[in-house]
Design goal:
With about 400 residues, this protein is of the alpha/beta class. It has 2 domains: about 130 residues, Aspartate Aminotransferase, domain 1, CATH 3.90.1150; about 240 residues, 3-Layer(aba) Sandwich (Aspartate Aminotransferase, domain 2), CATH 3.40.640.10. It contains 14 helices and 14 strands. The strands form 3 sheets. The chain has a 7-stranded mixed β-sheet, sandwiched between helices. Strands 1-2-3-12 form a 4-stranded mixed β-sheet. β13 and β14 form a beta hairpin. The longest helix has 20 residues. About 45% of the residues are buried. The structure holds 4'-deoxy-4'-aminopyridoxal-5'-phosphate (PMP). 4'-deoxy-4'-aminopyridoxal-5'-phosphate (PMP) binds next to α4. The site of 4'-deoxy-4'-aminopyridoxal-5'-phosphate has 13 residues, from α4.
Length: about 400
């Protein structure tokens, strides 16, 4: 009998699940134009300056907000942890993957955020899923901002699979949130989830208004504070603190991959809720715990942040400098208070602008449709506390030159 082989290179793609992989997409379009700002390899990093394409590039596209990934104290802590515990915990927290550093970091984070308890996860992405999935179930309603991070969107898909109704309300719109709430049976369990600081444009959630609604309708709010922690709030304590609502927000969750100079994530809240997540969160129970090196580096970064809150002030000053100067130059930049400074241009111009900056040794992130509205492109400048004045001045000078050259300003 002839052997039946299933191959992704089959000629008849009508019933081929891999067909999409072989169909040219937007990325092929951009590559054909010779401008490709993604998957760039970094060969070495000194923080604000990295080696890309074997030349020194000033990094304005990193989430390393406090600049701690290259801090000697943080690097030494990671090295010491590898020496003591090895390179991996090789198991989930539930079984063999808990080390004393996990507990120490959880205690310090809970303390720093003035909450009763904390739980670590292995990535920020998993943290969103690990927090949301166990909280929702059949008949519940998850209200999620349309611009929430992809990790929350994907947690919403899991929630749908659990027969929860997921409602995505208009971005940062208390009016739409209220409209949606009013459509839900009043006796159904509901949960509001929002980014604290939205990752594409750096805007801050309208938390005061959301909280007023949440209080009126008796719905808990949980916040993903990936871009707020270490950036806003007293000493970098994040969005809820920024609005003086830290006691009112049920759970705050966050990644280590931004201000905490590592990889992993955490959630803080009250003891019972954290204890529940500890036992019912598949993303926690069925995944290996954060490695000794990542745990030690997040712990060391937190210690630096606690000892040197002036890093947050420096970050805010740098961000203000860049934002003000870009606005003064005439770029389309919104007012704001976070370390993400977006410039909106048309799609074609965005890639040209990115290339002109990159040719002059500056790396920024560029978002194109469908991540942005059709025809629009967003250049995301991310500022770090470790940028020196010379980096900021060079960025602004270069924007002035290329902005004029391209006729944007
Ligand atoms: N939430 C938000 C708002 C984010 O911006 C990110 C990362 N870009 C994540 C979650 C996921 O975090 P990580 O990359 O650490 O998995």
């Amino acid at each position: 009998m002839q052997k039946l082989t299933i191959t992704s290179t089959t000629q008849n793609r009508q019933y081929d699940i891999f067909k999409k992989c072989h169909t040219p997409g937007k990325s092929d379009e951009y590559k054909a134009k010779g401008i490709w700002p993604y998957y760039k390899t970094i060969y070495a990093s000194e923080g604000p300056e990295v080696n890309m394409e074997h030349r020194s590039i000033i990094m304005f596209g990193s989430n390393n907000y406090l600049g701690l990934t290259t801090h000697p104290f943080v690097k030494n802590a990671a090295a010491r942890a590898i020496k003591k515990y090895g390179t991996s915990c090789s198991g989930s927290r539930l079984l063999t993957g808990t080390i004393d550093l996990h507990i120490e970091l959880e205690n310090k984070l809970a303390n720093f955020m003035d909450k009763e308890a904390c739980l670590l996860f292995s990535t920020g992405y998993q943290t969103s899923q690990g927090v949301i999935q166990p909280l929702v179930g059949r008949g519940d309603y998850l209200l999620s901002d349309k611009d929430n991070h992809a990790s929350i969107v994907s947690a919403g898909l899991i929630a749908k699979g659990l027969n929860t109704t997921v409602i995505r309300f208009k971005h940062n719109s208390p009016a739409d949130l209220e409209k949606q709430i009013q459509k839900i049976p009043s006796d159904a369990c509901k949960l509001i989830v929002t980014d604290g600081v939205f990752s594409a444009d750096g805007s801050v959630v309208n938390l005061q208004s959301f909280y007023s609604l949440a209080e009126y309708y008796n719905i808990p709010i949980i916040i993903d504070d990936a871009h707020g922690f270490g950036v806003i709030g007293d000493g970098g304590r994040g969005t809820a603190n920024h609005f003086n609502l830290q006691d009112e927000i049920s759970l705050t969750f966050c990644t280590f991959s931004k201000s905490l100079a590592s990889i992993g994530g955490f959630v803080v809240g009250n003891k019972e809720e954290i204890e529940y997540l500890k036992h019912y969160s598949p993303a926690l129970v069925f995944s290996a715990s954060p490695s000794p090196a990542s745990t030690a580096s997040a712990l060391a970064a937190l210690e630096v942040l606690m000892k040197q809150p002036e890093l947050v002030t420096r970050l805010q000053q740098n961000a203000r400098f860049v934002r003000t100067h870009l606005i003064d130059l005439g770029f389309d930049v919104p007012e704001g208070e976070t370390a993400i400074i977006p410039i909106t241009v048309n799609e074609e111009m965005g890639l040209k602008l990115w290339q002109e900056l990159f040719d002059r040794n500056i790396f920024v992130n560029v978002f194109v449709p469908p991540a942005t509205p059709a025809g629009k492109c967003l250049i995301r400048n991310s500022v770090m506390a470790s940028h020196e004045q010379k980096h900021l001045d060079y960025l602004i000078e270069t924007y002035k030159y290329v902005g004029q050259k391209l006729g944007i300003i």
